[in-house]
Amino acid sequence: MNTTFPSAPENALALLQSTSLTRLVVESMEEMILGGELAPGSKLNETSLAQRFGISRGPLREALRMLEESGLIRQEKNRGAQVRKIALSEAADIYDVRAGLDAAAGRLLAERITPEQLKTLRDMTAAMREVQSGDVDRFHELNLGFHDAIVGMTGNPVLIDQYRRLTRLLALFRRRNLLAPMAIPHFAEEHSAIVDLLEARNAAGAAEALFAHARGGRQRMLQGGEWAGAPHEG
Hints:
three-stranded antiparallel β-sheet; mainly alpha; disordered C terminus; elongated
């Protein structure tokens, strides 16, 4: 009996297509989870998801495996997959680690920051000052972008990967803290002071300021409990 096998190029193409498809599913599901469409604790039905994305179970299960590795979902035997829940105590632990990463980013960036990078950060702090006192969602968005930019500007792939992983995990924590609208100008100035330290190439000062900033966010989170106010700052 003659058996025909796909050629090597065909095998490579099939693998590339499968990998690309899996990555697209991962990115789409990340958006659904972080955007709140799939809430923490939501059960993930493989059949429904496969139909939604128009894929077979194989690529879907690989996508779920990757999402589990990133910490966004949890899979248990006989219970299937569900969006991960982050408890208050775990969120506090994540903040502790993130504070250390913020400090490391500040120390590294102060030693190598460029004029172009400084301008980018200055533009961000200027945008923060223009936020209306009641628009806490807009300020929260700018705040996340500011800290992500600082980490990204270090050019350290390990630091960037670990920081963004923790940021995604904190996004699963739906509780709110006590960032009152009147606090927005204060935090805008706090961010501006951080940029001043980076511009002065004060590595120790930038590290200390960023660490204290993140620890402040942790404390407000712990004080806030279930209060339905503004998103986490810091």
